[in-house]
Structures are given as C-alpha cells and as structure tokens.
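Re: magnesium ion structure - here you go.
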Amino acid sequence: MDHLGVVLGGVPTTLLVTATCFGVGAVLGLVLVTGRRSGSVVVRGLSRTIIDLLRGIPPIVFLFIVFFGIGSGAIRLSPFVAAVIGLGLISAAHLAEIYRGSLLAVHRGQFEAAQALGLGRVTTYTRVVGPQAVRVAIPGMVTWAISLLKDSALVSTIGVAEIMSVTNQDARSSGSSLTPFVIAAAIYIALGSPLAYLSRYLERKLSLKGAR
Amino acid sequence: MTEPLTSPARPILSIEGLSKQFGDHTAVDDVSLDVRPGEVVAIIGPSGSGKSTLLRCINLLESPTTGRITVGGIPTEVDGKVSQRELVALRRKVGMVFQSFNLFPHLTVLRNISLPQERVLGRSRAEADARSMALLEQVGLASKASSHPPRCSGGQQQRVAIARALALDPSVMLFDEPTSALDPELGLEVLSVMRQLADEGMTMIVVTHEIHFASDVADRLIVMADGRIIEQGDPKTVIDDPQVERTRTFLSAIRDR
Amino acid sequence: MSTSLINDWGEWLPRLWDGLLVSLQVTGLSLVLGFVIGLGFALLSSAGSGLVRWPAILLVEIGRGMPALVMLQLVYFGLPGVGITFDAFPATVVALTLTTAAYTSEIIRAGLRAVPAGELEAADALGLSHVDAMRFVVIPQGLRIALPTLMGFAILIFQVSALAYSLGLPELLGQAYSIGAATFRYLDVLVLAGLLYLAITIPASWLVDRLERRLSKHLG
Ligand SMILES: Nc1ncnc2c1ncn2[C@@H]1O[C@H](COP(=O)(O)OP(=O)(O)O)[C@@H](O)[C@H]1O
Ligand SMILES: [Mg+2]
C-alpha cells in the first residue's frame, strides 16, 4: 500500500522538467520579445506568427509533433529532450507575451528621457526600461511557472517518468485505482501552492512599491 | 413631498448623542442635532473632522457606536445592532448623494432612477419611468435618459444621482461634498439644482466647502472639528464673525485657496 | 511529395473533422455546465459567512491546483475503484466541467470584486436589499468585467480537451493519433490536426482581444 512513496518518486523528474522548460522559455522568450519589438516589419511579423502558433496549438499536440512527428524520424529525440523542446518553446511564447506586456507598462516618457539623454538602445533596455519592466513581469512569470508545473504532467504521455507517469503505472499494477490519483492531485497542489502564494505576495509588494 | 402632517416646530430629523469609533479612534464624538422640516443645514470643517462619518451614520451606512436617530417621529436606537427592517425603513426616508456620484454605469440614466423605485417602493415600471422623466426634466437632463452614465459629464452624473435619490421621496437629503470631484463650472450646475431643491422646501444636510452656497442657501451652518460640533448658527454670522479660534483658522484657510 | 501530401490530407480530413466536432462538443458542454457551477461557487466564495466561504474557496483551490490531466484520469481511471464508472465522453465532460467550474469561479469572483465599492454603498443608501444589489448591480457588471478572461479561458479549455485522447475519446487528437499509428505518418497528420486546432484558437483569441479593447474603452 505504499502509493505515496511510489508517486513521490516522480517528484524530482517533475521538478526537473518544469525548471528546465522554464529556463529555456525564459531565455528564448527574450529572443522572441526582441523580435516582436524589432524595427523590421518582417522580423516583427515572423516573431508574432511564431508566438501565436505556439500559444494557439494545444501543448499536447505540439509535444506529439516534436516527439512522434520530428523526433522519431531522421533525428531521434529522447522523451526528456522532446519534452524540454516542446514545453520550452511554448513557455518561450507565453513568457515573451508577459515580457511584452511589462515593457508596455513602462511609461513612454522613460524611453523618451533615455533618448534625450543620448543613451543607446541597448543601454536604454538594460539600465532604464528593463529593470522597471522586470518588477511588472515577475508575478506573471511566477503564474506561468505554476501553469508549467501542471502542464509538465503532459510529458507522461511520451514516457517521461514524472509524477503522472508513475501514478498511472501504480494505478494499473495495484488493485486500488483511486488512491494514486488523489495522491498525485495532492502533490501537485502542494508543489503549486507555495508558488501561488509567492505570486500573490510579489504582486502586492511590487505594485505597492511601483505606485506613484 | 415633505410630510405635511409634521408640525414645523417638531424636528423632522433628530440625532441624539451620536458617536462612532473606529478601533480606539473617535471619528464622531457625541453629536446631537435637530433639523426642522425644510431646513437646510450646511456642515463645514477640516478634512478628517468626521463630516462624512456623521452623514454615513445618519443613514446607517456606518453603524454608530452609540446614539439615537429619529426620522419623521420614528426613533432608531443604534447601540450596536439595528434590525434589517429598521434599516430599510430609515433608509427609505433618507436620500444620499455621494462625492463620487456612484451611478450604476451598466444601466441607462433612466434605469438608474427607475430601478430603485421598482425594487424598494414596488412601483410599476411605467409609474417609475414617469416619475424618473419628471425628475430628469427638473434637473435639466431629460435628453440624457437613454445614455449610460460614463457618457455623461461629472456634473450631469451628479444631477442624475440627485434625481435618483429624490425619486424615492425621501424626507431628508444628505449631500457629502457633492461638488468636490467636479470642475468649478460643472459644480455650479449641481449647486443650482440643489438651490432649487432648497427653495422647494426640501430638508437638506450638505457637507461642503462652497462657502458662498453655505451662506446664500443654508439656514444654519455647523462647523465640525475632531468629531464634534464646535460652532453653529446663522451662516453669515458664523462666517463674518466666528466665535471659536479654530473656525477662524479654518475659514481663512479655505478663503486663501 | 506535396501533391501526395495534399491527397493524404484530403483522405484524413473527414475523420479529423469528426474528431473536431467531438472536441467542440465536450468543450461546449463543459463550458456551459462549468460556468453555471462556477458562478455559484463565485457567490459562495464571496459570501459574508466564513462557514460558507472557506469550504468554497478550498474546493476551488483544489480544482485549480491539480493538472487537468490528473482530473481527467482521476475521473476515468480512478473513480471505478470506488464503483463509479463513466464512458470516455461523460468522463471527459465531468472532468472538464469541474476544471471549468474551479477556474471560472475564480475569474468571476475577481470580476465581482472589481465592481467599485461606492456603487454597493449607493445601492445600500437607496435601500436596495443585498440580493437586489447583487442581482442588479454587482453580478451584471462583474460578469461584464470578467467576460474577456472567461472567453480566454474557453479557448484554453478547448486546447485542454485534446487531453481526452488519453481516455480513448475519438476527439481531434485521438483521431490524428490513431491515423498516425496506422500509417506511421505522425508528422503529417499531427500537423494537420494542429492546423485545425489553430483554425479555431487563433480567430477566437483575435476576437477576445477585440472585445477586451472595446470593453475597456467603453468602461473607461
Ligand atoms: N472606515 C473607516 N475606518 C477607519 N477610520 C475611518 C474610517 N472612515 C473614516 N475614518 C476616520 O475617521 C475620521 C473622520 O473621517 P471622515 O468622516 O471621512 O472625515 P471628513 O469627511 O470630515 O473628512 C478620520 O480620521 C478618518 O481617518
Ligand atoms: Mg469626507
């Protein structure tokens, strides 16, 4: 009857998948948002299309395209690598939109003031606008991390041995089928709630400080 | 509209020993006040002196810590709990106009005025609409009946809010700084509606910084500080010759603005 | 290759189309049922009494905290363990309804909270009962404020419906996957399925954007 032990065994992999995809998404999201704000119409349109496609397609479908569609042909992708590519790219698109929203939230006057002072584009972003935008972006990023934690359950379908996957095996091999699922639900809630708390806390704190 | 059976000598609104505490801070401190039918009482005083809290206690938006409120001869003891029935009875007799209008933005101007009549007084839709149109006519906004509040200027919104309160045929109208959120010229339209209302004999308590309005229209001026009434009397007398030092400082401060 | 691809797509399309209809059915049903329950929970979790409020909030947090895939599998593979057995279609509707209820409850609650307190005070001062104030003032405005977010959520739940393939429901992804398994043309058929999903989600999010902009202009 050690359902708890079995299901807990999937936690490290769930956390690893979530953290890796988030990291990949955070970096690639910067690339996408830069493209989205580029001076070139072509680059802007392309970035926007990529973002819209990645956000519009169900994550499970994209994951299947990566794993079964691409990864089983000429290139062989391990389930973990396919998971990171699939959920990492989707994260990049969502995080790019979060970044973009936070850049829009920075007052126009800040760009104008930086220009008037003769600061270059890079300096303007890294020293003036970026730091202000980060405060706005952080609560949204934490919220995305929570979604990603839950979406990581999808990678069980391509054979990554995380929580959902070990839960399924446990349910199949043991007679009692409800208990493992209830335990899995409880574990996801337990993992997500500190993040939810953090997000609410940051939102309150950062919005107070940011207020004029 | 006012109650003809009440003798002029008997107050239409009587407040006895009213206090309100927030934690250990006393916002209104043992205030007593009688208002005669048709009387217009203006209240002035520095910010934080308890003017809004006093008004909000009169229609029990805040429940007072102690005191008794009598409207039209029916007393409501307000030490702690007031029954739902008493609450509704009292609010029907007291109309309130807020600094921020508080119209319902999803309803048209006409529905804003008619809905409470239907729900609170049980009037039919036709009856309510007829009364609403008459009031809109009176405040000069008949043409706005089918607009939504966000499409009206602040002055127009406040006049609608006055009509909405009047539609329930209150015995007393309370105004909490009705023009403070408005540009001066929009404030004037609102003040002129209030002046007209006073001329028609409505009993009114008006918290305001409009010293001209207070001296021209009010029958009595009350000065509040620290939750107490520190001075009251004929408006012109109080304004020209204040007896209390704090009144003098306050009056010169608002004149200097 | 391109002509043969188009031929294949033409051959697969009817099955995928049937799948899409199933996806839309489970999504629509779950949204309607979930929204009604969600509105109820939004009101309960804004209640004055803590005895009502806290259990409601707890249930909502549980529903939001677990992945939709866990909800689906719990209902379909888990509940038979305690004697409750569903077919794939009702199991999907039950699971997605519960998920929808939990999320929409929170979205509506935020909408209700965004109605300015001054308007409730005005309703009080006019002598409207609490029920009337909720019915005529707070709920209509709260729902309007929540509408764009609710529609955004509807798009999300349509995407989530793809997970029902794991219960063997012949919805869009399920059909694509079984065609893929039979033909080993996973990439082609999955891309086509993806395009069908996008044909719904992209115009829908474009509509939501427009609505959001129009409403914010109207209210501001
Ligand atoms: N809801 C409340 N909770 C705590 N303190 C309050 C509340 N409302 C008013 N106060 C306090 O009561 C005092 C009187 O406030 P108020 O009646 O608004 O004054 P005025 O309208 O004269 O500016 C102030 O010190 C204010 O901070
Ligand atoms: Mg005040």
